């Protein structure tokens, strides 16, 4: 995988790391201008004056390029796959555990706090992140829920899950509200999982109402 | 109440608004240096070279001074009182409604988004806000829950409530995640209230475990 920068950089000729830096500069500019969906690997390559194959070589997918450009410390698409890997029924508990592992981790935790502060600080970065998450995380998670519920309802459910998990990490790690900040992960798994189970799989009058009002269903 | 700035400012002599500005400058400095609890009205008055009575005249309580110094667009202590005014049993639904009213309000909403962005952006402002909320909102809310649960458990419950409500407003108003951002408030009240009811009043194995491990109980 082209992600292990630290290893890959060893022995790289100066021209290569310059090309890589130039691609990242171009990516930051184009993602900011056109959004995640609007900016293509091809347009980034053209802006950086390199071959598109070189962008793929360094960053793999457009998601990988986006994460590198924004110094995003995790791979949310892979985490969503991991959360649903044991089936939809086990997803709520795995979701809470995965969130806590990433946000409590000695390396990922501080990087995520710093990343989230940056994302929340300005409207433009909030907009960009929302679009990225919609095109990756929400799309993947909604597809896992399908069969069970209609698309409009799936998105309401995912939004509610996001609201609880985002709030948990903001309260626990960004604001560091006690005793939440010091509670053992296991206590939070026991306490939060029922909420996520209900939002994702349970009876939800609100979500039904939205789905029933949705003209596409 | 000395809070209606717009009205009060009319007819005020220049010397008065200068004293007011000087008090706010001193308050911002001392709250940042000593925290909400550590900075006193007396110390702010001394720093601003005015009589402490003038600080009370302009800002009422220390909470009022804090809100004015940080341009906080709401009075959280009053909102908590309002939420619990009809009793603990009705507090969960009133809490969700009050949050949505404040964050969806055409005037309070944008001001709250901007305020929250500022608070979350830097560690120092996060620390200060956490301390202020602990000394005001959490203290008041915990006292409303008492009789029912022990103090350690009450604080876990309030932390969990904070995590859901904070996440809801961050997802809905700061990141503006759809369809959450456009859902009618009534749908969210129906969907989120059961979560808040459980966190505040329901069976919570996690909270019990914490209370049982707490040496003060």
Automatic annotation (TrEMBL), chains A, B:
PROSITE patterns: HTH_TETR_2. Residues 40-59 bind DNA. Residues 17-77 form the HTH tetR-type domain. Keywords: DNA-binding. InterPro entries: Homeodomain-like_sf, HTH-type_TetR-like_transc_reg, HTH_TetR, Tet_transcr_reg_TetR-rel_C_sf, TetR_C_16. Transmembrane segments: none annotated. It comes from the Bacteria. This is HTH tetR-type domain-containing protein. It comes from Pseudofrankia asymbiotica.
